[in-house]
Specification:
By secondary structure, the protein is α+β, with helices and mostly antiparallel strands. Among the domains are: 44 residues, no CATH class; 183 residues, no CATH class. Helices cover 47% and strands 10% of the residues. A six-stranded antiparallel sheet has the order 2-1-5-8-7-6, covered by helices on one side. β1 and β2 form a beta hairpin. The protein starts with a helix and ends with a helix. 9% of the residues are buried.
């Protein structure tokens, strides 16, 4: 999907690529068949987005208790232009699943703990936001939050841009991006670690109504607070020897949320418990797949060495023809000189 966006592929060309991959892979593979199925897989792992209706005057969102409202609760204007088509739509990208995926990889999870476990704390030197007075003041106010190196700290940034690449157009979109500050300075500014949270529609800047569009993000961040408190409570009651971090996350978030390792498909919420356990139990982890790959590589290297020994023995006993000698530079030059004359004769005979 990333290559599809970067290279501006059409849906037809993307479907053709998936068909080639399905033919190359063994039978019974789980490769999606078209663009629509691929988009569904992204939504299942938490990389989708939700559309929220917006009042034409940016008074309120049709979200939460007003999700099924037909008119704006503030100015009483109609929600739709015609035929159930809203005036505006806000794209909301939930961040909880993407934060979980950051801690599911051993590389990004190490970077998310860098600010406390690896960073050098030297007085008078400002290398990272954690060296600033605001960070230290927050740690003093909330010591329990600061004690855990996995506590996520993010910055919010937003700016308008013209999506049509035409400076004469007055239409602008306003993305809201979250930047994780836990990571080291060389990883935090990397665009791959940014979290797109909202895409505010135009045609103009939201200005004083910016807080209206931030409502889904604020509600989602509020949900993370009680979950963190519950996890800390379980950690205080059960030491790591009795209950691991993964088991605590399973108790708080559910097994479907913790199942983020590997390339396998995440079990659906509607799947029965026994079937879900079978899927998760049969799914190899990243370490198991890497170990299998190393074992296969070592076996192939050993087989190549044995074959080379057998070939040397056969050639030593004149049971196998020796390898052909490599062409010399003189022979290659003669072939190059002869090739034009041959082509000329053939062309004369044809004429």
């Amino acid at each position: 999907m990333n290559l599809n966006v970067l290279n501006k592929w059409t849906d037809k060309s993307f479907d053709g690529l998936l068909e080639c991959l399905r033919e190359i892979l063994p039978e019974g593979n789980q490769c999606p068949g078209n663009y629509y199925q691929t988009s569904k897989h992204l939504c299942e792992v938490g990389l989708g987005y939700e559309k929220i209706g917006v009042c034409q005057y940016d008074c309120a969102l049709f979200y939460g208790e007003n999700a099924n409202a037909v008119s704006c609760p503030v100015c009483k204007s109609s929600r739709y232009v015609r035929n159930q088509i809203p005036h505006k739509r806000l794209r909301w990208f939930p961040i909880k699943a993407r934060l979980k995926r950051m801690f599911s990889s051993k590389h990004t999870s190490k970077d998310m703990r860098w600010h406390k476990e690896v960073r050098k704390n030297e007085a008078g030197i400002l290398r990272h936001p954690a060296d600033g007075d605001a960070w230290k003041h927050f740690d003093n106010v909330y010591p329990d939050f600061a004690a855990d190196s996995r506590s996520v700290r993010m910055g919010l940034a937003s700016d308008g841009f013209n999506p049509f690449s035409n400076m004469t157009s007055t239409y602008s979109l306003w993305p809201v991006i979250l930047i994780p500050y836990n990571m080291p300075p060389w990883a935090s500014p990397n665009g791959t670690n940014y979290l797109m949270s909202l895409l505010i529609p135009g045609p103009k800047s939201p200005r004083k109504d910016y807080d209206v569009f931030l409502m889904p993000l604020i509600e989602e961040l509020k949900e993370l607070g009680p979950l963190y408190d519950k996890m800390m409570e379980l950690r205080g009651q059960h030491p790591p020897e009795e209950l691991s971090d993964k088991e605590i996350m399973e108790c708080v978030l559910g097994r479907d949320s913790v199942y983020l390792r590997g390339w396998g498909r995440s079990p659906s919420v509607t799947t029965s418990t026994s079937h879900r356990e079978n899927i998760v139990g049969n799914q190899p982890t990243y370490e198991e797949l890497l170990e299998r790959l190393n074992d296969t590589t070592s076996c192939l290297n050993a087989t190549n060495e044995q074959l080379s020994v057998v070939v040397d023995i056969l050639r030593h006993n004149n049971l196998m023809a020796p390898p052909p000698p490599p062409p010399t530079d003189q022979a290659s030059d003669e072939n190059l000189r002869e090739s034009p004359s041959i082509s000329v004769r053939e062309s004369q005979d044809d004429s």
